[in-house]
Each structure stands twice: as C-alpha cells, then as structure tokens.
Design brief:
The C terminus is likely disordered. It is globular, with a radius of gyration of 19 Å. By secondary structure, it is mainly alpha-helical. It contains 9 helices and 4 strands, in the order E-E-H-H-H-H-H-H-E-E-H-H-H. It has one domain. The termini are far apart.
Length: 256
C-alpha cells in the first residue's frame, strides 16, 4: 500500500497571502499550454505569438469563470440560491470540467471573432495543448486530498492509499493520479504525435473530445462519486460519467 505524502496544500506563505498548490497547478497548466502553443505556432505561417498569447488568455478566463459557474450550477445550486455571494468565493474550492469546457468554448468564439479564424481551425490548433493542463489539475486534486477514489476490496492493494481527508479512513484508489496519467499525459502524447503531421479539419479536436470522453468515463469507475450526488443513473453511473459519456458520443456522431 502506498503512503499518502500529506503535502501542505499551502505552497508559499507571504505574510497574509497564502499561495496554494492548486493555484500553482493552474499557473503551470496555463504556462505549459502557452509554451506548447507557441511551439506549434512556429510551424505555421498563419499563426504568431500575439495570437497565441491572446488565445491562452481567453482560454484561461474561460476555464476559471466557466469552471466556477459550472460547479455552482451543476453541483451546488442550492447553496448558491441560499447565498449568491458564495459564487465568488473561489478560495473555498469547487471547479467543474463541464463548466470549464463550456467557458472555453465561449472564449474561443470570442477569440475567433477577433482574429477571423474558423471555429474548428482554432480547436484543432489548441487541442494538443490542453491535456497537460488536465494533468496538472489532477495533481492539484491529489495534493489537496480531494476527489479521491473508491474503496479497494483488498486492503493490501499495491496502489491503495489512505487519504487524511477521508473521514472513513478507507484504503482507496488514488484516482487523481490515474486521471493525471490517462486523461493528461497519455492523451497529450497521442494528440501531440498525431497532430505533428497535417490532418483533416475536425480530426485533432475530435480525437481530443472522444479520447478525453472515453478516458474520463473509464476513470469515473475508480473515483468516489460526490457525496451529495451519488449514482444518478442505472445505480452505477455518476454525473461526471454521464455528462462526459454523452459529450464523447455526440462528438463522434458529429464527426461522422
């Protein structure tokens, strides 16, 4: 059984200012996306560094604003109705991939309008730069001891781990690390090498959406469902698996 490293969630303290590891992971995600996109832009005559910087900036706003609003609307709408100001209390935690995805889509529409680029041309360009951000986000979840996995049947399971944030102190899957590797590193490698050569329009973005959808759907079976949500379909499907599965299926149908 693995030992949870029990890392202090606060990475740096500067007087009254506390910089959390989760925030640093977001910073690393955006910096990595900017670096990868800059490299890709150098291979294309119709892209430049200014366009890349604006694209990453627009995307960052979409991720943060969309992720927060999505979490509030999809998961904690009751709390929002009771205290609307809670929407702005981002330091309390709570981000949603579904909301972040929608936020990025809106941000990309605005960027496309500014630079007169087509929708899928932009998505095909930026898609290979996204999985590393997902990887850093899951590492941030792991450091914070949140979104841990389901209980394992064998307490001596080699990859099992007890999270100090788990009130039951059960041996669980470190599902955040599974997701970091599968939805992050593995998907990045597939997309990066696939997009290294000219591909048909829609192909790269389709590989990303279907690849992420399938990976996330599979990983949901190792992840503990949110306590206030549980299993919402067929007695075994979580809200995350349902939403992501439908997204991947819809994208596959759209490509065909």
């Amino acid at each position: 059984m693995l030992t949870y490293p029990n890392i202090d969630p606060i990475a740096i303290s500067l007087g009254p200012l506390n910089v959390h590891w989760y925030g640093l992971m977001y910073l690393l995600a955006f910096l990595c996306a900017w670096g990868l996109a800059t490299y890709r832009a150098k291979q294309r005559a119709d892209w430049n560094s200014e366009m890349v910087s604006d694209l990453v900036f627009f995307g960052a706003l979409g991720v943060v604003l969309g992720g927060r609003v999505g979490y509030v609307l999809f998961y904690e709408f009751g709390k929002f109705l009771a205290d609307p100001i809670w929407l702005f209390k981002v330091w309390t935690g709570g981000m949603s991939f579904h909301g972040g995805f929608l936020g990025v889509m809106i941000a990309m529409l605005l960027w496309c309008h500014k630079y007169k680029k087509t929708w899928f041309e932009t998505l095909d360009f930026i898609a290979p730069c996204v999985p590393t951000g997902l990887m850093f986000g899951r590492i941030g979840n792991f450091i914070g001891g949140e979104l841990y996995g389901r209980q394992v049947s064998d307490p001596n399971f080699a990859l099992g781990m007890i999270f100090p944030t788990d009130p039951l102190h059960l041996v669980r899957h470190p599902s955040q690390l599974y997701q970091a590797l599968c939805e992050g590193l593995l998907l990045f490698l597939i997309l990066w090498f696939y997009s290294a050569k000219p591909r048909p329009r829609y192909a790269v973005s389709a590989i990303f959406l279907m690849g992420y959808g399938c990976a996330r759907f599979f990983m949901e079976f190792f992840r503990e469902p949110d306590a206030d949500q549980g299993y919402i379909l067929f007695g075994w499907m979580t809200k995350g698996a349902q939403g992501i599965g439908f997204m991947a299926l819809a994208r596959a149908v759209a490509v065909k």
